[in-house]
Amino acid sequence: MKKYLSFAIIATSVTLSACGSGGTAASSATNATQPTTAESQNSTTSNVVPIVIDGGPTGQSPDNTPFVSVTVCSTNSPTNCQTIDHIILDTGSMGLRIFASKLNSSLNLTKQTINGQTTAECTLFGSGYDWGSIALANVKMAGEIANNVPIQIINDTSIPNVPSDCSNEGAYNDLGGANGIIGVNPLPYDQGNYYSCSGSSCTLNSSITTAQQVVSPVYEFSTDNNGVIVSLPQVSSTGPGATSLSGTLTFGIGTQSNNQLTAQNVFTSNGTEQDGSFTTTYDGGTYDSIFDTGSTELFFDNPSNNPALTTCSDNTSFYCPSSTTTITTQLASLNSSAGVNFNFNIINFDNFINSNPNSVVIPNAGATGGQNFFIWGLPFFYGRTVFSAFSGASTSGGTGPYFAV
């Protein structure tokens, strides 16, 4: 039987204070930042890849986990490539990370070295840490290609074991059994904890340059590189759920006829942060937020004065109200007093999984999170098209970073 987990992939490098289905926009878009116009780049490159939500490579991945496939090629021999499926799509982190065990040894990816020492990274997620080397690869998705980009090879046995100052940060993160993860957060570079390795030890390297950091491959595409669009179908909160669900990941915003900005509400960081974070006001509190496909639920702590959202008796991190409960929130750009009201239904988690035991999607699922953030996880994306613009990128909705719905 599958173990149900509150699964937050969001990287700690996303600068939150900590980090759908049934939702309705309850006020006019005139309160949010409005899209502006920009001339299309007229790209003709194939720019759409499928998203699939299923049980993962082994059938045991957490529900509400979206996957894409990525093709990785050697920089020394560009025709030497491997396509890897079940890579988690994550709008809450940055860059491509693949488990070493999933890569063919024949790829022979070039390790990134600085002053003759191999570069490694300790990546910190809300759900734990990953340790691995940094390699250079050509990354292909649809008709797009990013050449010579740094990616992380998790659990690479050719480098020394994880340093204690990394492993002491939390539990090891197996990414829920996925083959890897690709982060497409508005902040393209991960600004992580990098190390230089030689012999049997690795030491922290605080002088690594931006160009040497793991970066979102989409940001390095030659076209359609100013952001991404995630589109998923609606899922009924009353069942029967689904054993698989398909959507699309589209590259670029306003660069082709199929990626024009249709969102009514644009939420920006207003120069305060570069990760696309905005604010959510809920029940008297205001929290830093992002739209995060890598989080399997909506993560927020319910105020004690709202007794309707009780937690489940067995899956105690999830909410199990006696009946579907509507929460009312207001979303706004950072440092902005103008917001947009969003109502979102929270279901009884236990009732849904007991009635739909084979479903890999759980709409309207909520879970306890932290005191200082409100994460709009994958259930928010069901029935929506969500735009994510890279920091500093020019788009038809203005200059990134922003999220738009």
Folded structure, characterized:
This protein is mostly beta strands and 405 residues long. The chain folds into two domains: 24-35 and 257-404; 48-220, Cathepsin D, subunit A, domain 1 (Beta Barrel), CATH 2.40.70. The chain is 3% helix and 37% strand. The strands form four sheets. Strands 1-21-20-17-18-23 form a six-stranded mixed sheet, with no helix packed on it. A six-stranded mixed barrel has the order 3-4-11-5-10-9. The longest helix is centred in the last third of the chain and has 7 residues, at 349-355. The relative contact order is 0.23.
SSE layout and pairings?
Elements: E1 24-25, E2 48-53, E3 66-73, E4 81-90, E5 94-99, E6 110-111, E7 113-114, E8 117-125, E9 128-141, E10 144-154, H1 164-167, E11 180-184, E12 193-198, E13 201-204, E14 227-231, E15 245-251, E16 266-268, E17 278-282, E18 285-291, E19 298-299, E20 325-332, E21 339-346, H2 349-355, E22 366-367, E23 373-376, E24 385-389, E25 394-395, E26 398-399, E27 402-404
Parallel strand pairs: 4-11, 5-10, 18-23, 19-22
Antiparallel strand pairs: 1-21, 2-3, 2-15, 3-4, 3-9, 5-11, 6-9, 7-8, 8-9, 8-12, 9-10, 12-13, 14-15, 14-24, 16-27, 17-18, 17-20, 20-21, 24-27, 25-26
